[in-house]
Amino acid sequence: MGRIELEKGNFSKAIEYLEEALSLQPYGPLVQDATDIEPLALAYYKAGNLENAREHYEWITSLTWSRLSWGDIYAKSFYMMGKIYQEQGKKNKAIENFEKFLDLWKEADPGIPEVEDARKQLAEIQELPR
Fold first, then answer.
1. Containing structural domain, residue 51
2. What would the pLDDT profile of 52-106 be if each residue is shown by its tens digit?
3. Phi/psi of residue 38, each to 5°?
4. pTM greater than the 0.70 cutoff
5. DSSP string, the chain
6. Is-contact 84 65, C-beta < 8 A?
7. Structural Rg of the chain based on CA atoms
8. Which residues fall within 8 angstroms of residue 104, CB to CB, at 6 or more apart?
9. Total domain count for the chain?
10. CB 114: neighbour CB atoms within 10 A?
């Protein structure tokens, strides 16, 4: 239901459902899967709650098990943190996360929109004084 509400653009309802779903996981936060956390992080981002979005994307990057099965979500979390830090005016953190994302994605499939956007955003940020 949370993913449906996210697709509809009902971010507060999506957050409510997705938070509830995470709370019902039987093994707690250490065994979470990136596919469970990413929609919630995105809902927070789209709702404009950048701090909660960043915390959830950081959570994804801390999950070692999910990197094996969901490496794309792991890598894209750095892209999203780059966007968040950029929106918050934290240029150095934005650069760090965009570079990490691009480094992780360098051998992956070409043509991913996030890759082109990360390159563009990184170039723009690097032109600005730090």
1. 2-127
2. 999 999 999 988 776 667 788 999 999 999 999 999 999 999 999 999 999 998 8
3. -60, -45
4. yes
5. -HHHHHHHT-HHHHHHHHHHHHHT-TT-GGG--HHHHHHHHHHHHHTT-HHHHHHHHHHHHH-HHHHHH-HHHHHHHHHHHHHHHHHTT-HHHHHHHHHHHHHHHTTS-TT-HHHHHHHHHHHHHHHS--
6. no
7. 15
8. 71, 74, 75, 78
9. 1
10. 20
Residue 99: give its domain's CATH number: 1.25.40.10
Contact by Cβ (8 Å): 50, 87: yes
Cα three-residue angle 44-95-130, rounded to 5 degrees: 110
130, pLDDT greater than 60 = no
**C-alpha 52 chain-centroid distance:** 11
Exposure string of 20-35, with b = 16+ CB inside 10 Å and e = fewer, is eebeeeeeeeeebebe
Number of residues in the chain: 130
